[in-house]
Specification:
Blueprint: H1 2-16, H2 23-26, H3 29-37, H4 54-74, H5 78-89, H6 94-100, H7 107-146, H8 166-180, E1 184-185, E2 195-197, H9 198-201, E3 232-234, H10 239-248, E4 253-262, E5 274-285, H11 291-306, E6 311-319, E7 322-332, E8 335-345, H12 347-352, E9 360-368, H13 369-377, H14 390-393, H15 402-431, E10 448-458, E11 466-471, E12 478-482, H16 490-493, E13 497-501, E14 507-509, E15 512-514, E16 517-518, E17 520-522, E18 529-531, E19 543-546, H17 556-561, H18 564-568, E20 572-574, E21 580-582, E22 585-589, E23 593-594, E24 603-604
Parallel strand pairs: 1-4
Antiparallel strand pairs: 2-3, 4-5, 5-9, 6-7, 7-8, 8-9, 10-11, 10-13, 10-19, 11-12, 13-16, 14-15, 17-18, 17-24, 19-22, 20-21, 21-22, 22-23
The protein binds 3,4-dihydroxyphenylalanine (DAH).
Residues 237, 239, 279, 319, 322, 341-343, 364-366 line the site of 3,4-dihydroxyphenylalanine (DAH).
Length: 605
């Protein structure tokens, strides 16, 4: 009975199949041969009702297979091919089902049919694999085509793209610097919780009970600090992370932990109740990490933050958790600024955290991200960081940018170059020393030209600088940056007649190359700065000279290498009659006469 059903299913499937092509299977020499011999293989047990014959089964296999081969041909994707495979060769696939019919055949017939079906199956596998290779290749090609990038297309730069927050940039840069030195970053909430117990924040860090930070006025307590239970608070410093890490890790280890801290301060330009600190801790076998290692590490770190020429100074200080302790200053814009606290970890702290101070030792440091960002970017109000004004955020170059390096170099260089000129002048005079050795380096080494400011605008990145285009009789006007923002409006500058020091090496001023210097008279405390005035009749490009000094101007390199400005500028002054003089003799042009300024008695530079 089952056979009958199967047979009718088979016939039905033959019937429902669209016209099929027998070629693939008939081409199989083996199956063809067997098909011809099929008559004598007919089973003797066949009855009228039970008419499964080898011929009929082979016919079905032929038709099923040819349909399968057609489907393989038609499949265009790997998933379609997989479906064909399952439909024909899978456990419930059509060919597999035909195998089931073999039960009704005689032993010899089974053998022949089994072999034939196996051959068909193998052939189908081969065809499927071949097709799969082709399709996969096509799919890969199509994918590569769709992902093709035209590297010759022009780039898009700074067109409304977002900017990093200056604090994020500082935290990222600082953390990266330590990661490169082998420190692990600790930021997981469980390792660096903002809600801390008094124990982690103070006690384990060796802070005595009367330490000012423990005062109700200074910390945000979440539970009563005088109550019977464990006291909780918002952490006042990231040093608390040190204790968690000492408890958790086995030395040696080094960690860097950036995080938010809270202090109960009145908010003003330099204080915020929430700010960011970065903590480092390095623990090794006792004696391996010295104070020298700490100083070297801190110095390297500060160079990474402020640029390689930063000057660093260590001062002895006190922190309860380090002994000895130091505070560290950097010289920025001519001033020493405190930026960091550090020291060798106090053995009592190690002991409390379960590290044997006889066996291990190390150093720690901590600093505020806001302070770094304020110093580096010249930000004067800490509140600017948090008010989310996009115009504020757009101003800051990223550490990775070329602009940042130029920016830092410019900010470090600005005062470095100016200071010696102004400071050394009175010193030399007091000592009675001759500033110009042997009279060789005199005012004639400077190429001072009359010019007119044809364009002036505010420097985009430096608060104190104007950029000017000045016509000094050359083919193109010169681009010069001057720190005049605090001393005159841009309108006053536009169209002004000025004197330009024209043989100075171009210098990048916060990213803008400046090709010279505009001469000004200035009070020694910089409270007043004014442009000096060439005589009216002098055309653009006219050279300014001093009688008795008629040498040729020096080259840009000579000026730089021989530090000529240091030697020449101290003698450049406005005399009591409002005339600009060098060593007492007036600066003048042929057509315009003497150079003037109403800043009598002031220096010029
Ligand atoms: N935690 C200190 C503070 O908030 C900063 C500090 C100083 C951290 C010295 C240290 C250190 O790790 O060694 O002022």
């Amino acid at each position: 009975m089952t056979t009958l059903i199967l047979l009718s299913l088979l016939l039905l499937s033959l019937h429902t199949c669209r016209p099929f092509n027998l070629t693939p299977i008939c081409r199989s020499p083996l199956l063809h041969q067997q098909y011809e011999r099929s008559t004598f293989l007919r089973s003797s047990s066949d009855t009228q009702n039970d008419i499964i014959t080898l011929d009929s089964v082979i016919l079905s296999v032929n038709s099923i297979a040819s349909m399968g081969f057609k489907k393989v041909e038609e499949a265009n994707t790997t998933s379609e091919l997989e479906k064909v495979r399952l439909d024909y060769l899978g456990k419930k696939g059509e060919i597999t089902q035909v195998m089931n019919m073999m039960r009704k055949l005689g032993k010899e017939e089974k053998k022949v049919l089994g072999a034939s079906i196996n051959e068909v199956k193998q052939k189908m596998e081969v065809v499927l694999t071949e097709k799969k290779d082709t399709v996969q290749e096509q799919e890969l090609q199509a994918q590569m085509e769709s992902e093709r990038i035209d590297v010759t297309m022009p780039g898009i730069q700074n067109q409304g793209i977002g900017r990093r927050h200056p604090l994020s940039m500082i935290i990222e840069r600082a953390t990266d610097t330590f990661v490169k030195l082998g420190y692990d970053t600790v930021t997981e909430l469980s390792d660096s919780p903002e809600i801390e117990s008094d124990y982690y924040c103070f006690e384990a860090l060796n802070c005595p009970p009367d330490h000012p930070a423990r005062d109700m006025q200074d910390s945000f307590y979440l539970t009563d600090p005088d109550g019977p239970e464990e006291t909780y608070m918002l952490r006042t410093h990231t040093s608390a992370v040190q204790i968690h890490q000492m408890e958790k890790r086995k030395p040696p280890f080094r960690i860097v932990a950036p995080g938010r801290v809270y202090r109960r301060d009145d908010i003003d330009a330099t204080h915020s109740m929430i700010f960011h600190q970065i903590e480092i801790l390095a623990i090794e076998e006792k004696g391996k990490l010295t104070l020298g290692d700490l100083k070297g590490t801190v110095e390297y770190f500060l160079q990474q933050m402020f640029g390689p020429t930063i000057e660093v100074q260590f001062r002895g200080s006190f922190f309860p958790f380090t002994e000895p302790s130091m505070e560290v200053d950097v010289k920025f814009n001519g001033k020493w600024l405190e930026v960091l606290g550090c020291g060798m970890v106090d053995p009592r702290v190690l002991e409390k955290a379960g590290i044997d101070p006889e066996k291990y030792g190390g150093f720690a440091a901590g600093f505020g991200a806001e302070r770094f960002a304020m110093v580096i970017h010249g930000i004067t109000d800490i509140r600017e960081f948090y008010n989310g004004d996009a115009r504020f955020l757009e101003q800051f170059p990223h550490f990775g940018d070329q602009g940042m390096t130029a920016f830092l170099e410019g900010r470090l260089a600005e005062k470095k170059e100016e200071k010696p000129i102004k400071e050394e002048a009175p010193k030399k005079q007091k000592n009675g020393a001759e500033p110009v050795a042997g009279g060789e380096i005199d005012i004639s080494k400077l190429d001072i030209r009359v010019g007119t400011v044809v364009k002036a605008w505010k420097h985009e990145e430096a608060e104190k600088l104007y950029c000017e285009e000045i016509d000094i009789g050359e083919d193109e006007p010169r681009l010069i940056c001057s720190g005049l923002v605090e001393h005159m409006s841009v309108e006053e500058l536009r169209g002004r007649r000025v004197l330009v020091l024209a043989n100075l090496k171009a210098r990048k001023m916060v990213g803008v190359p400046s090709h010279g210097m505009v001469l000004c008279a200035f009070k020694d405390d910089d409270s007043q700065v004014k442009l000096v005035e060439p005589g009216e009749g002098a055309p653009n490009g006219a050279r300014v000279t001093v009688e008795g000094y008629d040498g040729e101007p020096a080259t840009e390199n000579q000026i730089l290498k021989k530090k000529m400005l240091d030697k020449i500028m101290p003698k450049l002054k406005v005399n009591g009659e409002g005339i600009v003089v060098w060593d007492g003799k007036p600066l003048a042009t042929e057509e315009g006469g003497v150079v003037k300024s109403d800043m009598n008695g002031c220096s010029v530079g």
